[in-house]
Amino acid sequence: MSWRMRLTRVFLWVSVLAWGIGVGAKLYDLRVVAGAWSAAPPESLTLLPYGPRFPVDPGKFFIPTSLSTLVAAFGALISGWKTPLGYRVWLCLSAVLILAVWVFTAVAFWPSNAALYAAASGATSGAKGEAELIRLARQWVTYDWWRVAMMGAGFVSAVRAISVPVPTSTASRSSV
Which ranges in 29-163 belong to alpha helices (H)? Predict the structure, then answer.
């Protein structure tokens, strides 16, 4: 196996592990943590996992995990760029999906997180009505399921790439 393919495999292992940890943690976060704080807004918003009452900000877990996934997925794509197209598609899909998760998070979640936290801490002083907070919490949960779906597809694509035989010759290129 060439050094390039070995490097691709190392990046793929890191990618698979990071995707798996991220998907599992996100499912837990969505079902348990978000399930609690979004249960009955605005009262349940006090359970948001931010601020001085909570020892760990979820971002301190998810940012390094997803950054590891991003670096590993793009590392696998770059080091595996000269592999056959059928194999490279899996590498590309993993990289594109983690990038999409990052963009989607910044665009859809950061503004919502700020608005929900402001309402929970009383900083908005009634600026958001109860109906708007309920809508925002439901939208957040719906968008988070979309994010889980993207993460699941990214995980599957990385697992698929690491599961197929390493393409080493022209004969094996047609089987990938």
Answer: 34-37, 59-79, 85-104, 110-121, 130-163
